[in-house]
Amino acid sequence: MLLLYRSQDKGFHVEKALVHVFTRSLPYTSAQILQLEEAVEGEKVQYHIPVELSDYIFRGFLGSGSVHPVRLVQDFLLKGLQEKWSVSMMTKTVPFLLTAKQLQACCCDVDSTHWYWIHPFQKDLNFDPPTSTDKETFLDGRGRTDTRDAPSATCVISDKADRVRSKGAESLRSACSLDVDPEGEGGLYVLRPSLIAQMEELLTKKEGLINDAVSHGENEGNNHSVEVEGHIAQGSCEGSNSLTSLLFGISGIVFGNVPISLWALPSFHELLLRGVFPSECKPIKLIGQSLEALLTPYGVSLVTEQGGLRLMAQPMGVVGRVFVGNSSDISHISITVSLNLDLLAVLLFSLPDWRILWSRDPRFLKQFALRPLPGKPFQPFSLFPEHISFDISFWTGPTWEERKFHAVVREASHGTVEQVKLIDTFSHPDLSQTSYCYRLTYRSHTRALSHTQALQFHQCLESLLTSRLEVTIR
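The line above is the sequence of phenylalanine--tRNA ligase; the predicted structure tokens follow.
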């Protein structure tokens, strides 16, 4: 039962006179310290996931049989695209970690200022990674794939963040160092900001298999090529080669070291599709028309930009892109589609906030148990979640990095801060110090958040800022 009460000292027409109170809510729990082990370019690497990202790891939203809205949106999009093209979803697990060189080689359009830099604490150069074969899954009659959201990493250690804080462990600071030069630090690692690098590698291996089969006539390779050709969509662009008119897809979680704001997601699920089409088919226009037919009813508009399309929606902004990739054959065009499944889920199911997608409350998934079609609005837990604002002021040294501040805010507030606004700065004329004043807005759509609880989070933030970033609270 939901309980509404009227403030005794305010009329109903006054702001905040009507306040919503949760009658039941999951408790707030301490963040997890995750130590992962992955094989990256033939090396076994052990590293820590930044604490503020721990709740986004190994959630299995895209797993087989999942009814999470992110999975429902993916199935909806793939089913719609399947009406014109065959779609082959790759199910091979790929690591969260990439080398800086991998990203620089193929992701020039991905903003490097939003990368999560990772410094591994152990590397095994003699590691012999287990061999595995790439798998493809073609869509069934309902546009769904039977893929498994199996993790590529091994979780070695899981511990409570507050236990680490009590020891003051320096090594477990948020791994988002910005004092490195990516040009000169080729050995550094990055949490994948996109799946483009993995898509490039998987398709390169696939093309190699097909070319080897054609040149050497190997039975295994020929069978693979025939399998792909057998799923070429029939239409105006049919049959130029084994990859034409076939969309290869991969989906998974990606990460962005972005400042806190209403629609800035530090982690989301990306659906990436890649196809090679004859130039005369105008594939960008065709794919744009298909996406427009699927998403326009939900408020998505397509904006033409140089080299592709940008998918826009209000109030979140960009929810996807369609762009041209490099192709060695001038008679064909390589097209890539990148879609933010989390923001699209917010739109298609009328969610009040993207953070509710990560709720562990069983009432959330219960609303999607019957796999509703997009357009059915979500029934929120809280009708009037209250905004609670606190200001924080502090002195910093000359090497202040605001992005680290946002990471600590996410950790200390358990993700309840939805907006951070810089309201004042002052540089001391005699000392190499600068004073910053920020206004933090706390609000939660999934858990009870009282003024007292928000104040506790804010006091924890002051403590972490003092110990982690060595600031002086004013």
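Note on the example: The chain is about 25% helix and 30% strand. The longest strand covers residues 267-278.
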